[in-house]
Amino acid sequence: MHINRIAIIGAGTMGRGIAQVFAQAGLEVLLYDSDPDALAQSLATITERLRQQCVKGHLQEAACATALDALQGIERLEAIDADMIIEVVPERLDLKLDIFSHLRQVAQARTILASNTSGLDISALAQASGRPDKVIGMHFFNPPPIMPLIEVVRASETSEETFVAVIALAERLGKTPIPVANSPGFVANRILFPMINEAIYALAEGVASAADIDRVLVLGASHPLGPLALADFVGLDVTLDILDSFARRFDNAKYCPCPLLREMVDRGELGRKTGQGFFSYP
Ligand SMILES: NC(=O)c1ccc[n+]([C@@H]2O[C@H](COP(=O)([O-])OP(=O)(O)OC[C@H]3O[C@@H](n4cnc5c(N)ncnc54)[C@H](O)[C@@H]3O)[C@@H](O)[C@H]2O)c1
């Protein structure tokens, strides 16, 4: 199956980056968000980023115009005509289940349904969709236009045809797809988020300052970014949701989020997106 027309549900940090990647690769992109302001903001941001790519000479003028023509915001999730729909709403299973149940009614029978979840159960989404063989995880990394990896998450119900089509699509985007099993956090986040949590515990216990904890990992372990700066980049609310879901699904206290993380989220210190997290972003 060749995928040419994509609909993206959720136009936040990841949805807008994913939309840009598809538009730049020459696919038709329909972008939807339940918040009309978020949708308008995302369309403006993608347009600006594509124009900048053109100004810097990374994208030819004609390719930029084609990408902009291929991108369209939609105001309602009704009768969607797309080869594939990707769900990119916040990391809450109830929210994602509602969307997959709704897609059961409004998506065409041929349409593949993917989720960009950071680690929720793809099988649960597959059951809600009414077409479990056509459901798959397509986990992009932040920022999607730059990061080369896509974890392709195959649930036990996912058909070979769906899997092959999504691997081919990821390669068409110029990305490297790596197949992973449908296990909490898949591979990347299962390793990254406990490390971030441990860094927050080290900060809370006064082992070192936030800047020094990050410097240790950058200078001593060759990480491009320290774990606290990474948490600020991902969003502390997203980080908390991911750790909470690991603790529940593995039923293991070692994944319980550090209380300091919860306190910061309660105070609205969510990282870069609010200007304050472990570091300040004036
Ligand atoms: N932020 C990251 O670094 C990152 C990286 C990889 C994967 N992810 C995953 O991507 C998904 C989205 O994360 P994000 O960081 O883009 O979140 P975000 O909060 O930046 O964006 C989510 C968007 O979804 C919209 N939304 C909420 N409910 C909706 C609904 N019912 N229908 C349509 N739109 C709705 C919101 O208005 C918002 O614009 C999550 O599953 C997250 O785990 C995030």
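^ nicotinamide-adenine-dinucleotide complex. The mean pLDDT is 95. The first helix runs from residue 13 to 24.
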